[in-house]
Every structure is written in structure tokens, then in C-alpha cells.
């Protein structure tokens, strides 16, 4: 695509700027339990996550795919009452296997989203806003070739024992390569976290996908499972490490889908001091 390199440059620049904001805001951690912020995408914590995602045993030949997904979240106050939570999700590199042998490696599509959330937290933490699909992929097999737009909603509760909630987005294609299929996809991510001693936690956050343009037998991807994580420090830097394993319980009828998904994620946390806390 003529615009692909310019678009990837813009996305990379935006991600770098958010990273600079995150580093600039890094301070000593407040007394807030950072485990409450690890899985809250509409929270006030600046964070950068690097997730290694392995999709295993797809199709009759048990092919495997891989993506390094970088998610940068850098919230800021719009007013004293409202918090803006911009998020940039970049998929690079992405390896997509062919149906028989070999595969394709390249830059995947990017998915920025922006939540607007109340600055004062009640029993329910919520956020709403737009989500976008940017055709930043370098190869046909690693992206959808479409520009997309849709709504994003997140809602969470955080009792003493942990976190429970969800995010849901639906994206429709609005422009792009006319020879590529139209996009109408939902991603629902329920989240549950149970805190353990010594900053450990049990967690599950599967992404349930629905391709509304596909036939019923190929529409759903539903992983079931979970894993564990821990918040820790290296020097003054707060980090969270998480390992998750999921089993796909809805294999596609004709389009090969992975049977297993393994995710290893490392999140850099940039907590603010008490004076700046939400």
C-alpha cells in the first residue's frame, strides 16, 4: 500500500511519544496495590506491555503462529472530572503460517483506542470511546488491508480480593483495499484476578472473538483457561510478569483455528505519587 510506510511511521511515533510520557511520569509507587492496575485498561496507571502470543496446533497440520503485541497506555486528565486513556496496540513482528508449509513474517495491523473515564472512582470503574483499525501490515497475510472504526466499552469492579470486569470492542471496515473482505468483528475480553500473598495473583483474560461476516461454524473463537502473575521490582522499576494458557473450545469448521494459545507478558508500570493519583 502506498500509505503503509507513512502510517507505520505515524503509529511508531505515537507509541514512542506515549513511552516518553510514561517515563516522564515515573515516580515512586504510592501505597496503591499495583495488581489492581495491571488488568484495568481504563485506569489511571501508565503502563507498557510486551506480550508474546503463541497460537498453537492450527488445522490438520498443527501449524503455529506468533505475534509480539506491544500495548502502550498513557492516561491524562482532560479536566478535573474526566480522564482520557489513549491506548496503542501494535502487532509486530507477526508470523502467520501458510496452510501447508512455510509462512509470512511482517508488521501487523495496529489498533489504537481511546477511553473517556470518570476521574473519581466509584464502585464501578468504566470507560467508553472509539476504537480504530489501521492497515499498517507489511504483508497481505499479516493484516486485513482495511481502515476500521467502532465503539469500545470497559467496566470493572475491584473488591479487596482482586478485579473483575470486561472490555468489548466492535470494529467495522470503512475504507481500504476493495479486493479484501469487509471487516465486522467483535473482541470481548472478560477479566478476573484473584490476589495472593507476596504480590502474586491468579488471572484470566481471554479474548473472545466473533467474526460476524463469517458462517456460523467459523464465527467464534473462544479460549478458556488462565494463569498466574506477579508484581515485582528491578531497581526502582515496577514490573508485572504474567503467563497464561488457553484452550480453544470452538474450533472452526473449515478455517483452521489454533487449539491452544500461550501468552507470556511483561508489563512496565509507572505509578504516580499520591499527589497525582486518580
Structure description:
The protein has 278 residues and is mainly beta. It has a single domain (4-272), classed as Beta Barrel (Porin), CATH 2.40.160. It is 9% helix and 54% strand. A twelve-stranded antiparallel beta barrel has the order 1-2-4-6-7-8-9-10-11-14-15-16. It is globular. The termini are far apart. Residues 22-31 have low confidence and may be disordered.
Summarize the structure.
The protein has 278 residues and is mostly beta strands. The protein has helices at 4-25, 35-38; strands spanning 46-58, 63-73, 76-77, 82-97, 103-106, 113-118, 124-133, 146-157, 162-176, 184-195, 200-204, 208-211, 220-221, 223-234, 237-248, 258-270.
Strand content: over 45%
Structural class: mainly beta
Say what the CATH topology is.
Porin
Please state the overall shape, judged from the principal axes of the Cα atoms.
Answer: globular
* Radius of gyration using CA atoms only: 19 Å
Throw out a few tags for this protein.
twelve-stranded antiparallel β-barrel, 278 residues, Porin, mainly beta, 2 helices
How do the strands and helices of this protein lay out in sequence?
Elements: H1 4-25, H2 35-38, E1 46-58, E2 63-73, E3 76-77, E4 82-97, E5 103-106, E6 113-118, E7 124-133, E8 146-157, E9 162-176, E10 184-195, E11 200-204, E12 208-211, E13 220-221, E14 223-234, E15 237-248, E16 258-270
Antiparallel strand pairs: 1-2, 1-16, 2-4, 3-4, 4-5, 4-6, 6-7, 7-8, 8-9, 9-10, 10-11, 10-12, 11-14, 12-13, 14-15, 15-16
